[in-house]
Amino acid sequence: MQLKGLIRFFTILLIIYSIYELSFTWVVRGHEKKMEARAKQFVSLNYPNADSATKDQAYKDRYRRLIDSTKDETVHFGITGPISYQKAKEEELNLGLDLQGGINVTLEVELTELLRTMANKSKDPNFLKALENANSRKANSSADFVSLFVEEYSKLTNNAPLAPLFAAASNGKITPKDGNDKVVSYIHDEANAAFGRTFRVLQTRIDQFGVAQPNINPNADQGIITVELPGLQADAN
Questions:
Q1: Domain residues for 9?
Q2: Is the residue at 210 inside a domain?
């Protein structure tokens, strides 16, 4: 009996907690619907004879201004007191892209130009062909781009040394006499660093949007970054 009572107690707590979490979603949706109505009213009064494209853009601009100007407005009361729209937006239960709309994209970090730069813009036909072949294979391969390039270059040159291609622009990190293992490690390090820089820039840009609960998944091995931005419209740039 005591066990049943304990289970019932925690079940009630879970229900209360779930309702509390859902309340953020309810108040956020309620506030946004009010702003939508105000934006529509503004367009109706100020653009009665405009074409649909102009009205749509005016509505989007007005809605964004309303949301931005009311982000500090109290829309909810929590355990710690008044909660602004911005805070409620951050705390709201994540409904997922399928329910609340948003942007879901996969970005590919381009490494071809990086390798060209690392090879001091080499015009070597085998080098250029290896890049081309690696690009053709990467869509259907689980291997990373650098590994594909090295494999293709080895095929084309019968395992010729890579150091002469990459030493000149390496700032002393490798020499023309270094073995392929060291050169490949160097290329991988530079590619990973480039991927990391791209990820940080992307993350900073997304943070500037103020999007609640963004989901950014980097995959360095595949050279891709998957981005999910709940609630963000596709024209947000």
A1: 2-93
A2: yes
Q: Are strands 102-108 and 224-230 parallel, antiparallel or unpaired?
A: antiparallel
Residues 18 and 119 occupy one common structural domain: no
The pair of three-digit structure tokens given for residue 106, joined into one six-digit string: 């996969």
d(CA 231, CA 208): 15
The count of structural domains within the chain is: 2
Q: How confident is the model at residue 6 (pLDDT cuts 50, 70, 90)?
A: very low
Claim to verify: residue 142 and residue 202 sit in the same structural domain: yes
Q: Which residue has better confidence, 10 or 16?
A: 16
pLDDT band at 237, cuts 50/70/90?
A: very low
Question: Do 118 and 210 share a structural domain?
Answer: yes
Which residue in this structure is represented by tokens 């730069």? 117
Say which residue, 149 or 199, is predicted with more confidence: 149
159 phi/psi in degrees, rounded to 5: 65, 40
Residue 237 lies in a domain: no
Residues 222 and 164 in one domain: yes
Q: How far separated are the first and last CA of the chain, in Å rounded? A: 59
Q: Would you state the pLDDT for residue 226?
A: 83
**CA–CA dist 232, 211 (Å, integer):** 7
The reply to whether 136 falls in a domain is yes
Pairing assessment for the beta strands 224-230 and 81-84 based on DSSP bridges: unpaired
Give residue-wise pLDDT tens across range 138-164.
878 888 999 999 999 999 999 999 999
Listed in order, strand segments (DSSP E) in the chain are: 74-78, 81-84, 102-108, 215-219, 224-230
Its pTM surpasses 0.85: no
Q: How far apart are CA 53 and CA 50, in angstroms?
A: 8
